[in-house]
Request: fold
Amino acid sequence: MERLRLAKEQKQFFATFGYLALPGLVADVIDEITAAFEQVWRDRGHVHEGEQRSMIVPFIDQHERLCRLLDDPRIEGLVGSLLGDDFNYLGSDGNFYVGDTQWHSDRWTTELRWVKVAFYLDAVGRDTGCLRVIPGSHRLQESYAQKVQEEIGASAEMWGVEGAGVPALAVESEPGDVVVFNHNLKHAAFGGGTRRRMFTINCCERGVGAQIEAVKEAISIHAKYDIEQMYSQTMVQTAGPERMVHLEQVLAHQGHMPEERAKWRAEQAARQN
Reply:
């Protein structure tokens, strides 16, 4: 299969608006992907009861078929087109979403470029939980994005609208579609049911020089998931040379994770006492 390379117009669209939808990109393997998604939850013994969000982190690491998404020339080429061919894979999450997800950014930083690749395993529309985005809200160097950042948390008072009433674009999706967006982009979802299946892959550009500290900080954040290494044995042991390009920097800089996990556990214990 030929490696995907985004056209210059697609890359400019992403740079300007902060997201890109690719209909049917993995439609030929969506049944395999969905079966692997369900298998991970069964293997974990987790039954989603529909009352609140269920999440597993890291997620694609739990199943060899999902690990291979990093080898898929469409996914690898997509992310490489946006972040450079030596990008870092920095975690994933698998979810059963319930109800609404309010407006937020995953990060708010210029230290590293980040993207999230989202796979929706159920058809989702404007009023049934699809991704909504505020185009251009990721450009935090610009006054528009800063204004949105400052006011969206109080949108009812500031703008007279809130939630689904905030002006935004609904990125409707069918199984097999792929959506990628900048971590700084304001996004949300409204009207979803109690069993909205989706998972994401998070990637950042390879850190250089002072950016290494930002990579290490991003690794540290994962201690809250009660893990002390970023990747599963399955992810590493099944990796060929091409996949290792996307793992090696994180593997080289995750030595502080056991300490970070211990600190997180101590904080949790203190809260309970």
In short: The chain is about 35% helix and 20% strand. The mean pLDDT is 97.
